Amino acid sequence: MTKPPDRLYLLYHELRPSRSDYSYIVETSQFEKHVDLFLELRKRQPPGFYPEITFDDGHLSNFEFALPILQSRSVMAWFFITTGWTGQRPGYMGWPELRELQQAGQQIGAHGWSHALLTHCDPSQLQKELVQARLTLEDKLGTSITTMSLPGGRSNQRVLAACRDAGYTQVFTSGPKAEPQPAGATVGRLNIRGDMTLEWIAKLFQPESGVLSSLQRQHQIKSTVKTLLGDKLYEKLWALLNRQEPDTDAGEAAANEDTAHYQ
Ligand SMILES: [Zn+2]
């Protein structure tokens, strides 16, 4: 039996119908082209990396714009939800939207309770971010929740152990990495930016292009710099360099972004 191809999990956040300078946002028509490309790549012989789609934060645009595109092509994606924002924070999905996503066959996972960086949480905060987030999703959606994506991609051994103790069997990170199948307890992902071209994205899936391995090297260097500078200073510098909209997700972008040219 031939070995299944390694999977490359992609990370999206918000979609918008019009173009945005904010690198965190992908234009809806671009996303549609991405999904069509992924469908082609999944059939390609010999296979490259196999694309999988994930969304973090639970933005309302996931429901309004991404779901119809996915449904019309019978594509399943993962949606990681900041549970405490659900039905509370303008611009984010409420329980009716999440139920509809789930009934449409999409996968729901947790993304913490308040989007706090888990590495900064004490044990009682971790309990809320991990356990209360999971139990509330399970209660409201009537399904078991076993996957978690790390806010801001931040993790350490203590956080990963707390995720396991809280009942998560898979934790999705923000480190760009192709995953052998079946995927293990941590799953790497690559953040998709609005300024990445379709051609560049297609190259990501060809292991021989070296694009993914070069992103991995940059990610490792940045993680080291971040550890040396500390989160706060690193995020300020990153926002300055990337025309970041002032938003709570600046930290997440800082964890995910690479300074390469995506063209
Ligand atoms: Zn997030």
Describe this entry's structure for a reader.
The longest helix has 19 residues, at 123-141. The chain has a single domain, classed as TIM Barrel. The strands form three sheets. Strands 6-5-4-1-10 form a five-stranded parallel beta sheet. It is α/β, with parallel strands linked by helices and 263 residues long. Helices cover 42% and strands 15% of the residues. It contains nine helices and ten strands. It has helices spanning 28-43, 60-72, 95-103, 123-141, 157-165, 198-204, 211-229, 231-241, 250-256, and strands at residues 7-12, 14-16, 25-27, 50-57, 78-81, 107-110, 147-149, 170-172, 186-187, 189-191. Residues 56-57, 111, 115, 151, 249, 252 line the site of zinc ion.
Task: State the main characteristics.
alpha/beta, 15% strand, binds zinc ion, 10 strands, TIM Barrel, 263 residues, single chain, 5-stranded parallel sheet, 9 helices, disordered C terminus, 3-stranded parallel sheet
Largest sheet: 5 strands, parallel
Instruction: State the low-pLDDT regions, or none.
Output: 250-261
Average pLDDT, rounded to a whole number, is 90
Instruction: State the name of the first-level CATH class.
Output: Alpha Beta
GO biological process, one term: carbohydrate metabolic process
Pfam families: Polysacc_deac_1
Domain NodB homology: 49-263
Keywords: Signal
